[in-house]
Amino acid sequence: MSPFDISVQEADSFEGRFFRFTEIAGPIRLVRFSDSGRGANGRLGRFWLYGSEVAEILSAGPSGKHLVKAVSQRWAVCDDWGDKGLAWFMDVPKNHAVQACWGATKFQPKVSGAEQDRGGRQTRRSYAGGSIQLIIPVTDTGRAPDPFLLSLIAGPVTTDKLVTAPRRYI
What we know:
The strands form 2 sheets. A 7-stranded antiparallel beta sheet has the order 1-5-8-3-2-4-9. It has a two-stranded antiparallel sheet with strand order 6-7. It has one domain. The longest helix has 12 residues. It has about 170 residues and is of the alpha+beta class. The mean pLDDT is about 90. The chain contains 7 helices and 9 strands; from the N terminus they run αβββααβββαββαβαα.
């Protein structure tokens, strides 16, 4: 297995900039959340989560708002990166594997530094992070999509629908 390129911003998203490359073998379900305004382009993101962790959140909370708050807190997803209104699923089949870069997420401000620099909402509050995040090269750093990885992705499902029927999706 050879590592793939990650951006400086991606490397900075890991606690202590500590990350490792690995292969994730199937069968396994991975999940990512995207902004509802991105539509089908939301599946092209490189940040993914273990479906089992999302299932854990869903077992503890009754609403889409609870899910979004928990995802933001655990994976330190800044508010200005989107509403997390869509969920995507990557199903890695048995006898297959995908390359991934993994590590614990570091804390992030609730509003990204870039947004604050542009004169947007100011805050001193942060999301804790700490959960394992996965960077999967659905697109390379030049934004070219990987056809095999795209073939594994299903969705989107709205976050509210995911909450009302979690066993159907996770």
